[in-house]
Amino acid sequence: MAATAKSSFSRAQFESLLKRRFFFTESFEIYRTAPNFQGDNRGLYDYGPPGCALQANIVGEWRNHFVIEENIMELDCTAITPADVLKTSGHVDKFADFMCRDPAKGEYLRADHLVKGVLETRLDNHAKVVAGQGKFTKLDNATVKDFEAILAQLDNYGGPELGELIERYDIRNPNGDGKVLPPVPFNLMFQSTIGPSAAAPIYLRPETAQGQFLNFQKLLEFRRGAMPFASACIGKSYRNEISPRSGLLRVREFLMAEIEHFVDPDTSKSHERFAEIANVQLPLLDRETQLSGSTNVRSVSIVEAVHGKTAAGKALVDNETLGYFLVRIYLYLLKIGADPSRMRFRQHLDNEMAHYASDCWDAELLTSYGWIECVGCADRSAYDLTVHAQHTGSSLHVEVTRPTPIEVDAWQAELDKKVLGPRFKKDAKKIETAVSALDQETLASLADELSQKAVITVPTAEPLANGDSSVQLSGDICTIQKVKRVEHTRKYIPNVIEPSFGIGRILYSVLEHVYWHRPGDVARGVLSLPILVAPTKVLIAPLSNNAALQPVSKNLAARLRRLRIANDVDSSSTSIGKRYARNDELGTPLGVTIDFETVENGSLTLRERDSMAQVRASEDEIVQAICSLVEGRETWADIYKRLPPFTSQGQDE
Amino acid sequence: MAATAKSSFSRAQFESLLKRRFFFTESFEIYRTAPNFQGDNRGLYDYGPPGCALQANIVGEWRNHFVIEENIMELDCTAITPADVLKTSGHVDKFADFMCRDPAKGEYLRADHLVKGVLETRLDNHAKVVAGQGKFTKLDNATVKDFEAILAQLDNYGGPELGELIERYDIRNPNGDGKVLPPVPFNLMFQSTIGPSAAAPIYLRPETAQGQFLNFQKLLEFRRGAMPFASACIGKSYRNEISPRSGLLRVREFLMAEIEHFVDPDTSKSHERFAEIANVQLPLLDRETQLSGSTNVRSVSIVEAVHGKTAAGKALVDNETLGYFLVRIYLYLLKIGADPSRMRFRQHLDNEMAHYASDCWDAELLTSYGWIECVGCADRSAYDLTVHAQHTGSSLHVEVTRPTPIEVDAWQAELDKKVLGPRFKKDAKKIETAVSALDQETLASLADELSQKAVITVPTAEPLANGDSSVQLSGDICTIQKVKRVEHTRKYIPNVIEPSFGIGRILYSVLEHVYWHRPGDVARGVLSLPILVAPTKVLIAPLSNNAALQPVSKNLAARLRRLRIANDVDSSSTSIGKRYARNDELGTPLGVTIDFETVENGSLTLRERDSMAQVRASEDEIVQAICSLVEGRETWADIYKRLPPFTSQGQDE
User: Fold this and answer.
1) Which parts of chain B have pLDDT scores under 70?
2) Which residues in chain B have Cβ-Cβ distances shorter than 8 Å to A392?
3) Of A224, A267, A299, B251, which is most buried, counting CB atoms within 10 Å of its CB?
4) Where is the Aminoacyl-transfer RNA synthetases class-II family profile domain (chains A, B) (predicted)?
């Protein structure tokens, strides 16, 4: 089936199904089509009943698979975030894309997408000319090579480089062929203000992670000080994309589920439960392979990937914790319906990582838009906790008692308070704080400086009375010496491994993976969603709208509801085949028909979506079979083996 | 227990428990306490692990109780909303509170809260003087009466009236006694812009309802045209409160769960499943009772409330659909732990209803802050669908085939196209559209006008070439006549009954309801959360940290996880009594202890939180009992009856 689907996949057919069955719709559609609408609803989508139920089931299984199974501490943090927080995290300065304005059209274009689109078109046209298929401009060999090289490392370029490429290759807006202005950075966060004074700027969070980092000490306390531990947050995030396209894949408001796993870097990031998943094989595409110009995926067991060595003498995956999560992500995606043959884990190249990441593997799913990053699994090292601790002066570290105390050589700065007070007056306290905050490395270099120049400059967290944010201290007031110190505890800032799930992207990609159509009939689409996540589990369909059949279907619906099994009664007068076909498109795995035999002897038929096979048995047996399927205790093959098959009526057309 | 709790309730003790156990925390706390923080984090709260799990369970049960049980179509709509939508719905103009600025302090105060606070303080002080308890200003009898009258109808006052009261009674900022400026309206929606041009204004939604209304036609189609039906949306909404106080009860970002039940007004809003709940008794406080100056709640069966008549000859609750939802709300609140003796349904007074509502009953829970509106159940009539249809020109109505066609007298306007085109040129089309959009009522009055003045003015949806938004039409171009018409269908705009749940308010109020402390020890708090919503179902506690006990607790935890039962292993070296006490505060209903007898014969003890009673049995029996309790098949009384009690060790201290 999967092969049929892939070879004959039509995105138009597929998207028409999703819209017809109200999996999703553009938000505020009736406004966009209304006269005089000045707004912008691009990149905003509403999920309709089946999309919303599918999303709820995907999130529900995420909670089971991660939060409950890994005993993760879930948080619900606000999306509204004071600007200071995102200034510290680096998002205010760095979370931007470059855009070019086309003054003729008044359009804004994302600079890298513009370059990519135009160069790809030129290469395509060139290929057509070569193949004798059209009258386009032929390129010389050097230009073809240049274009290919540019496209291969597009993520490498910043604004100035993109501007240079646009200039050099006369890249113009494909819509109207107008020249564009040089790229300028555009921050992707939505900005607003909070409170009546409007003096306090806020952003809508672009990720859920920051809220988790800020709660680190409370989490550590909740876990009674035991490391490692993980927190999680499921919630909406916001990115003001310059020019959203690609349907559900690039949107401005989206659901994320993020885990922050905090780990002591001195434990080699080993993982307690690694042995449980050591032999699972993953499809890996590592950095070196990509740099060699290949995209060949290797199937490697995670124990080999973490504990074996590559030709370059390094492990393929850096540590057990990262490896453990890659496997758990893989198993989760399989459970909810992803096709393993269209799944890979790709390691980020150095230049494409976010500003906070030291390593990153993406779980990518292959769709008609290409390979889509659905889960990022980044090692954020100690970046975030460090910058927030520095900015706020709060403690965001772990302190553990050493099994045996150790004696260490440590640099120590001392201030002569008799001189300090009179000389610096009100600033004295701030200077004391600043000096005591100096770390060992800084102290070492200041000691050196002090011995050479007899004066050092120390930055202060708060500005001094004269407005300066640093102070000069001479040797008569400050001494820096190496001393012996007994340390009973060890302090460290945990490293963070972050599996970050884009739920909308996963949902869309899985829908592509489970979509196919009945052989020979592209109009008869089927979504083979696993029963675990299918929006509705059971269609209840009386064969005719004869009044005698109504009480049976009503009672059955109520019985299934009491078991919390989502079902839908379709008593419409359309043929049973059409009702089945509608539910195949909705991904409903099971269908129960009620006919006159039901009224006579209480038996029902149960149909399975993918095979269209049916069985017939008593209501109790059918309900028991449904429960067993929903709870994953039996497969359809099991049911079909043990209940009598049914072939006479109520067939698919 | 409930009585103990209420009589000795200390909010300080209670909130200290919630914060200590990380049910919630103020968001960005480490930033607020950092030097130089210029932001505003008031009214923003994060839920910690138990708060978040409780919230997830409350929402999960909401989905079962409403979405699955009532077969409601759930949507997930975006929070980002174009300004046009909220202009049409009335929120841009009317969703505001009045505020006064204190120029001396630079503070903004909500005007009604300011008047309320100051007058209540004056009355309190007066009462103390009368009782001989302090040296405050005594008030004369007329003033006392005035103040009481003002407080009773505070919701009645708009900005000018509040300004007059502030002037007349010299009401000042209690913080510093400064005079305040006159009240000005402050719109409560967070505003931003979308897209790089920043030309398109957006708001964060203040309710989830609008997204549902805009999808009405798609929902109707999904339901194959069958009425009535309901949609629902669970998601964050945002209100930029002027000065948030009262902890979780008045916040700027909050989770809502809203149902929009669309019903044909001609069916008297009857409800198919009304009979199932007809005899449920509800605690009702209707409008007439309140206007008579009483707050006495009557316990009335819903069938009597809907189908009986009050002394005034009206039904207490307007219709079956409203009544049905009131009962379903009541049953839901009971299930998740609300105390029925602290619950009431209060009908809104005319002047306190939202701008869109024609009737409204609030489910209120009594807390230490007074009666709190937790669920609003409003009849929004056809307001929203009507205004959106008018603004967009989209169809947001239902058209049903009449059993037998009817002949009706109808006003019909005709334009003489031979005159229209030449006279109005490019505007002709717009004028045709405007005339065809006129409803019967307008046509009737225009017919009258035309006969008297020979010219009428018709508003146009789009501005005309000269910029006018209406056109004058004379009798030579436009005729309006009454004609006979056969109608085969009936068109109507559905009315909407809207149960709207503030999840955060429910969560907080339920926590107050289930909180009590062990007799004689205020420091030993207990949260008697129903097992259905308790954050963690089972504490697993090895009696000592002897290595022999670890594998048992690990295996038991894994076994419960496989059954998707949230559990927590506490192997810390603190006494078992302290570990129980911590879990009582977390609301964990069950505790399993593992001791040396477990290693010998495999038996475990199971403790129940509220009674502290324990039983001892084999692991299989204990796990079976846990499942049975979690799934609601048995109560603790049942378990305690059938498993051997245990009293010897591992007791509460």
Assistant:
1) 1-7, 356, 648-653
2) 30-31, 33-34
3) B251
4) 189-519
CB contact under 8 A, A46 and B99: no
Would you say B630 and B567 are in contact if contact means Cβ atoms under 8 Å apart? no
Which chain B residue has the Cα nearest residue A224? B572
- Report d(CA A509, CA A364) in Å as an integer: 9
Torsion of CA A455, A459, A464, A469, to 10 degrees: 110
B567-569 sheet: strands from edge to edge: B567-569, B538-542, B590-594, B603-608, B614-618
Chain A residues whose CB is inside 8 A of the B568 CB are 71
Give the strand pairing for B281-285 and B343-347.
Answer: parallel
Phi, psi of B410 (to 5 degrees): -140, 145
* Bridge partner list, A201: A193
Mutation site for A-interface testing, chosen from B17, B18, B23, B28 by largest number of A Cβ within 10 Å: B28
Determine the Cα–Cα distance for residues B47 and B503; give it in Å rounded to an integer. Answer: 12
pLDDT at res. B651:
54
In this complex, the residue of B22, B83, B199 whose CB is nearest that of residue A222 is B22
Q: Is B314 helix (H, G, I), strand (E, B) or coil?
A: coil
Collapsing DSSP to helix, strand or coil, A358 comes out as coil
Q: How far apart are CA A393 and CA A430, in angstroms?
A: 13
pLDDT of A503 > 90? The answer is yes
In angstroms, rounded to a whole number, what is the distance separating the alpha carbons of residues B650 and B570?
A: 14
**A49: nearest CB among B33, B108, B222:** B222
Pairing outcome for strands B229-238 and B73-75: parallel
Cα–Cα distance measured from residue A497 to residue A359, given in angstroms and rounded to the nearest whole number? 9
Q: Which two tokens stand for residue A276?
A: 């449980």
- Compute the nearest-CA separation of A126 from chain B (Å): 33
pLDDT at B216: 98
Q: Distance between CA B474 and CA B480 in Å, rounded?
A: 11
Cβ-based contacts of A462 with chain B (< 8 Å): 35-36
B contact test, residue of A46, A213, A460 with most B CBs within 10 A: A46
Residues of A in contact with B572 (CB under 8 A): 224
- Say yes or no to pLDDT of A1 above 50: no
* Of residues B23, B50, B64, the one with CA closest to residue B534: B50
Cβ-Cβ contacts under 8 Å for B376 (sequence gap 6 or more): B360, B361, B362, B363, B498, B499, B500
Using DSSP, state whether A248 is helix, strand or coil.
Answer: helix
Give me the residues paired with residue A516 across strands: A526
Q: For chain B, which domains are there? A: 1-95+189-397+495-519 (3.30.930.10), 100-187 (3.30.40.230), 400-492 (3.30.720.200), 536-642 (3.40.50.800)
Which DSSP category does A610 fall into? T
- Decide if A112 contacts A96 (C-beta within 8 A): no
Q: Nearest CA to CA, how far is A76 from chain B (Å)? A: 5
pLDDT tens by residue, A123-181: 999 998 888 887 888 888 999 999 988 887 787 788 999 999 999 999 999 999 999 99
